[in-house]
Amino acid sequence: MNEPIRITRAATKKRKPKDSELTFGTVFTDHMFVMDFQEEKGWYDPRIEPYGPLSLDPACAVLHYAQAVFDGLKAFHGTDGKVRLFRPQQHLARMNGSARRMCIPPLDPELALRSLVELVGLERDWVPSTVGTSLYVRPTIIASEPFLGVRPAKAYIYYVILSPVGAYYPEGMNPVKILVVDKYVRAVEGGVGAAKTAGNYAASLYAAEEAKHAGFTQVLWLDGRERKYLDEVGTMNIMLKIAGEIVTPPLTQGTILPGVTRDSALTLMREWGLRVAERQVSIDEVAAAAHGGTLEEVWGTGTAAVISPVGELAYKGERIVINDGRIGALTQRLYDAIVGIQYATAPDTHGWTVEV
Ligand SMILES: *Cc1c(COP(=O)(O)O)cnc(C)c1O
Question: Is the pTM of this model over 0.85?
Answer without folding.
Answer: yes
